[in-house]
Structure formats: structure tokens, C-alpha cells
Amino acid sequence: MKTQALPIDSYSEKNKIEMIDFYNEASEDYEFWSQDFNMHFGYYAPFKTNPFKRDSMLNQMNAQVIKRLQINTKKHRLIDLGCGMGGTMRYALKQHQNLITYGVTLSDFQVKHGNDLLQGKNGIILKENYNHTSFQSHSFDSAVAIESFCHSGHGESSLKEAYRILKPGGKLVIADAFLKKERSELCKGAEYAYNRLCDHWSLEKLETHTFIKQKLQDLGFINITIEDTSHSVAPSVLHVPFAIMGFILKKLLSFKSIKRESIHNLKGSFYALLTGLHLKSFGYYIISATKK
To answer: How far apart are CA 249 and CA 190, in angstroms?
Structure first.
């Protein structure tokens, strides 16, 4: 990638700008991927989801993440760190009447249209950086991050901020793709797909799940659980080529041009499929941890 030669601070800032532009321009495209604006992959659960109905699996990912928070009947404050259009927030609010939900994103488009979708519901999306929020310490009972921390490279700052704003005993659940080995150990095919994925989806980098576990332990999280859910996520990933073809056909039939950010999104989706084929190098994990 062109940006690899930049110093790390410059690279991080450039990546953040590209990521904001990407989501400001391409978020509306996600309606083609999900009628509920779920901006993530799905989870196939036998007898609960239909592998041919994408939203069924995407909402099941929401269900799997929310289930691991173990929300009781008391008043509960949940924050979605990198909430997109608020799909997970809306799902959680449907399941739990005692929830107050907050979401943070850097995209103006997502703030405006996500809040439109949350009208009348007990939730709000704010323009905030999940690495440095304005919330007071010990503000939330739980936090989720579904395919969002990858945009800042699965860095320690994201985990540290989550720890700060959680109450003692609060739970953090992360669902994301991670490396199974160090980047230097990737084969040429896996490295090529990885570089293109990061480039087109404005991901700073991916970390290993072992790195995340160690950082969570260092920060003081306990009861850390690492679950490899790659096989459950795979059926939704297989929807990617059909979604790409359908999206392009829809644009052609409506005589509309495809935006640069949309092209990046489509290419990123294709390389996500390619990385998923390298099962020895990449995996999709749900990571749960509790603040001591």
C-alpha cells in the first residue's frame, strides 16, 4: 500500500481521514447488504437462522454479542464503540426494555441517519472517537465493538478506553476478524489479500487474538473468553460475491454511477472473502471480558 512508508502517527491519521470519508459516502450502500443497516457479517445458528437469508444471520450476530453481555432486568447502560448506523443498538433495544443505548462514530452521515432510525427509541448516536470519548469513567454497564476496532488497528488505546468507561463488573464483547499468526508469518497469498483488505476498507491493521487477550489481561480485565466463530460466520461471508453482483446490477439498471467509496467497499468485501479462505491465517472471533 502507498501509505506503508508513512510514519505510524501520519499513517494512523491518514487512515482515520480515509475511514471517515469511506463511511460518509458508502454507508447508504449497506442497505443493499442489510435492510436493518447491519454493517457487519452474520452468525449462522442451526435451526435459528436461514443461511439463504442474510439479515437473519446478521441479526443473529447481534443476538450472539448481546447474549454474552448477560443483561439482567435492572436499568442498563450499553455503549456501541463504532456503532455504524446503530443496527446492533436497535436490535438490543428490541430485546431489552431496560436498556439505554449510546453509540459513537466519526461519520457525520452515520450520526444523522442513525439517529433518524433511532427516533422514538431509548438510544442516541454521538460523533465521538472510541479511542478518546468524552464520557466519564465508570459510565456504562456494558460495551460492544463489532468489526470496529480493526479500523484503528486493534490498538491498546481502544481497549484502554473501553476499560475506563465501563463500571466495575461491566462486560466488553468484541466480534471481529483477527490474525491467527503474526503478519510476518503470512504466506504470499494471505499477505496480498490482507493488504488489499486493509487498503479498501481503511483498516489500520489486524492484530492476533492472542495479542488482544494479553492486552485485556494487562489492563485488568478478567474472565476473558476467546471463541473462534469462523465456521459460524462463513455462511454470511459466502453471500459477498452475490451481494457485489447484485449491487452492481442495480446501479447499472438505474443508470447511476458507482461512487469511488462504493468501489472500495465492493473490493474490500471481495478481499474479505479471500482472507476467509486462508483458514490457517485468519479467523473470526467473539471475545468477552469483564472489568475487575
So the answer is: 29
- Tell me if 289 sits within 8 A of 216, measured CB to CB: yes
Prediction pTM value: 0.90
Query: Under a CB-based contact definition with an 8 Å cutoff, are residues 11 and 204 in contact?
Result: yes
Residue 154 to residue 203: CA distance in whole angstroms = 9
CATH assignment of the domain containing 281: 3.40.50.150
> What is the number of structural domains in the chain?
1
Look-up of cell digits 454479542: 65
- Residues of the domain holding 263: 2-291
Q: What is the pLDDT along the chain (292 residues), one digit of tens a residue?
A: 233 333 445 546 666 666 776 667 555 677 788 999 999 999 999 999 999 999 999 999 999 999 999 999 999 999 999 999 999 999 999 999 999 999 999 999 999 999 999 999 999 999 999 999 999 999 999 999 999 999 999 999 999 999 999 999 999 999 999 999 999 999 999 999 999 999 998 899 999 999 999 999 999 999 999 999 999 999 999 999 888 888 888 777 887 777 777 788 788 889 999 999 999 999 999 999 999 9
